[in-house]
Structure formats: structure tokens, C-alpha cells
Amino acid sequence: MGDKLQNKAPKIFYVNWFRKSRDGKFLWPGFGRYSRAIKWMCDRVDGKAEGRKTPIGYLPNAATLNCEA
Length: 69
Known about the structure:
By secondary structure, the protein is α+β, with helices and mostly antiparallel strands. The protein has 2 helices and 2 strands, in the order ααββ. A two-stranded antiparallel ribbon has the order 1-2. A hairpin with a 2-residue loop joins strand 1 and strand 2. The radius of gyration is 15 Å and the shape is globular.
């Protein structure tokens, strides 16, 4: 598929919005924290943010992910 689509292939990001605690309850950090990840993804697509390569893909660098309250 990559050979056919070339640079027109959509960018794919893996996220787990539905993590659960040990007692089975959802860990919901709120939309504020999720929007930080979404902003990083958009910046990655636009070439404005870096990521570090890991076995599961690229993860945000501390400097490129807005962690302010």
C-alpha cells in the first residue's frame, strides 16, 4: 500500500484514550491533556515538532510536548 500511496498516505498515530487503572476504572486525565497530544500530532504532520524513535513508533520529546498546566 505504501508503494501505491507514496507521500499521500495518511499519518497514523496510536493513542490509548481508554487506559484503565488496576481496579478497572478509566484513567481520564481530561481534554486538556489530550489536546496536548493532538497538538503534537498536528505539529508532527506539519514538520514543526520532533519525536524520538522507539520500537513502537515516534514519541514526543519533552521539549516539543507542552506540559504546562
